[in-house]
Amino acid sequence: VESIKCQEYSIFFNDWDSLNGFISEGNYSSLMLIVDENSRKHCMPDLLQNLNHDFLIIEIASSEKNKSLETSKSIWQKMVEHRADRNSLCVNLGGGVIGDMGGFCASSFMRGIDFIQMPTTLLSMVDSSIGGKLGIDFNGLKNLVGFFKDPKGVFIFSNFLKSLPHRELMSGMAEVYKYGLIKDLDFWNAAIAPNTLSADLLDSFISRSIQIKKEITDQDPLEKGLRKILNFGHTIGHAIETANLEKEGHLLHGEAVALGMIAESYIANAKRMLSEQELKMITDSLLSKYDFPEHIILETEIIYGFCLNDKKNRNHRILASLITKIGKSEYNVEINKQEIEDALFYLNNKLK
Ligand SMILES: NC(=O)c1ccc[n+]([C@@H]2O[C@H](COP(=O)([O-])OP(=O)(O)OC[C@H]3O[C@@H](n4cnc5c(N)ncnc54)[C@H](O)[C@@H]3O)[C@@H](O)[C@H]2O)c1
Ligand SMILES: [Zn+2]
User: Fold this and answer.
1) Phi, psi dihedrals of residue 152, rounded to the nearest 5°
2) For residue 198, is pLDDT > 80?
3) pTM attached to this predicted model
4) Measured from the CA of 37, which atom of ligand 1 is nearest?
5) Which protein residues touch ligand 1 with a CB less than 6 Å away?
6) Of the candidates 330, 339, 338, 325, the residue with the CA atom closest to the CA atom of residue 271
7) Ligand lying nearest the CA atom of residue 177
8) What is the rounded distance in angstroms from the CA atom of residue 66 to the CA atom of residue 36?
9) Disulfide-capable partner of 39 in 94, 105, 200, 232 (CB 3.0 to 4.6 Å)?
10) Comparing C-alpha atoms, which of 11, 235, 28 is closest to residue 114?
């Protein structure tokens, strides 16, 4: 897998030399490494062994629940204790929670210090570490407070996936399937076919996913238009994720997105945008990949309520991104409460 060079920053694959070089050339006054207990245990030893630099470690407790202002405060506190200054570098070693929140804390500390992303989950490798969105959850709403800001670099080591639980790996695969559905029929076919995911396959999926995401976010970094297609499955998916956040054994982001993609494909079909045959293919394929927890909250009033909070909406109308066939998508498509209710009914029946 080749590294992808772009104007603002580069994305490197399995390349410790480039990371060592980047850090040396930066002449940073200090290096802070943000981890959670899992990335500390499974990924940090490898990092420390491969880099000839000393790090000040900031550990936070894993979980979406901690992607909060309280945790951010503790990160800033640690930065102060470590005497970080404008010339410090923040290295975010972890999944999307660490990447989003570590980037958020770095970008606001002293009006912004350099940071790099070292994603350790499949989801963060193919999605959250690319595209410059940073943030935290607030007031029970996901990613409500944050910035658009690019890292100085993204350094991907697919070896880190070896310790990732299968359920987390499949959560990341949901975004991989999404890229196929919105942009590339051949990629969808390649991603959905295999029953086991070898390291080589994963490398190729990561590479193609990043290509698609970069292509879209480079054209529309601030999500004024085109970038919205990346939100396919996310209007209803985010709502389902939020509705089930407090539940024991709650849904993972990608699992909620997989359900959202089925529901939104149903709506696309109801609007006569997507064929019956493709709806069936998407539904059956996605359902075959996941063991969803029992008793997922799918009540219309609750899900519709969260859909109303979606950041893509305008003038209190719910605007979704839908597909018109596998590999083609449209954004700013209005969906209404009845359509959401019907889609949830469809989903509920399929889950039984
Ligand atoms: N910024 C964006 O554009 C964007 C896009 C998509 C998702 N997100 C955000 O990403 C977050 C989800 O990311 P995620 O799925 O990576 O979740 P996560 O960061 O919570 O990681 C999932 C779990 O895996 C553990 N883990 C991480 N790396 C590991 C490894 N190599 N081995 C074993 N365990 C490991 C973590 O400790 C955690 O328990 C959400 O907050 C979501 O909002 C952001
Ligand atoms: Zn997502």
Assistant:
1) -75, -20
2) yes
3) 0.95
4) 37
5) 36, 38-39, 42-43, 62, 64, 67, 94-98, 100, 120-121, 123-124, 127-128, 131, 133, 142-143, 160, 163-164, 168, 171, 253
6) 339
7) 2
8) 10
9) 94
10) 28
